[in-house]
Write a structure and sequence with these properties.
It is a single chain. This protein has seven helices and six strands. The protein is of the alpha/beta class. It has a single domain, classed as Rossmann fold. The chain has a four-stranded parallel β-sheet with strand order 1-3-4-6, with helices on one face. Strands 2-5 form a two-stranded parallel ribbon. Helix 2 packs parallel to helix 3 and helix 5 packs across helix 7. The longest helix has 33 residues. The N and C termini lie far apart (52 Å). It comes from marine sediment metagenome. InterPro entries: NAD(P)-bd_dom_sf, SDR_fam. This is SDR family oxidoreductase. Belongs to the short-chain dehydrogenases/reductases (SDR) family.
């Protein structure tokens, strides 16, 4: 990470913005189905990427941001941090750590003379490789069945990626005064309506079987 930051400083003369968007999930399904060995493997990789990766990335840019007296940092939260999320427990724990770390760091910078702001972005449900590459626990659910459910949810609930990311812009501008704020890239009302639609479609599918 430090090598990338050093090359960025060499090429552009500094680092004004960091978006720490580490996102990895390995398993989808109830935690109770995981063996202790699998829990350790998943926790090391997922928490290592999502939480430790975010901490390392932010740590690598802070010296330069302090030196230049300016910086805007956006860390990415995720599902399970603002409300319980079944079947992605380790992922949710890692993102909860990201939010706690970011809020604490933002509080520290409120006491410093540097114009460095740290805020947390909740992008919403976006169909990326994070979901595509998650392995369904075979003892719990058939993979084809899971894929049908996922496609249904993504059709009615997924957030538009461009619309979601546009919400980040105000928080990376010099005019940003927020520090330690959690902001969303999706509409709660739209999300609720989407899940209601999914429930209706599921009922129709069950009746037709």
């Amino acid at each position: 990470v430090k090598n990338i930051v050093d090359k960025t400083i060499e090429a552009f003369g500094g680092v004004r913005i960091l978006v720490a968007c580490a996102g990895l999930n390995l398993t989808y399904g109830p935690f109770e189905y995981l063996s202790l060995e699998r829990v350790n493997q998943d926790a090391n990789k997922v928490i290592g990427a999502n939480l430790i990766g975010t901490i390392n990335s932010i740590s690598a840019v802070i010296p330069q941001m302090k030196k230049q007296g300016y910086g805007r940092i956006i860390s990415l939260g995720g599902g399970g941090t603002d409300r319980p999320l079944k079947h992605m427990t380790i992922y949710s724990a890692s993102k909860g750590g990201v939010i706690a770390f970011s809020k604490c760091l933002a509080e520290e910078f409120k006491q410093n003379p540097y114009d460095v702001k740290i805020n947390i972005f909740m992008p919403g449900m976006i169909y990326t490789n994070l979901m595509r590459n998650s392995q369904v626990i075979k003892e719990w659910k058939d993979e084809d069945e899971f894929q049908k459910e996922l496609d249904l949810i993504m059709k009615h609930v997924a957030t538009d990626i461009e619309e979601s990311c546009s919400n980040v812009i105000p928080f990376v501008l010099p005019s940003c005064k927020s520090n330690g704020k959690v902001f969303k890239g999706f509409s709660i009302i739209k999300l609720i309506k989407g899940f209601r639609k999914v429930a209706k479609v599921r009922k129709k599918m069950e009746k037709s079987q």
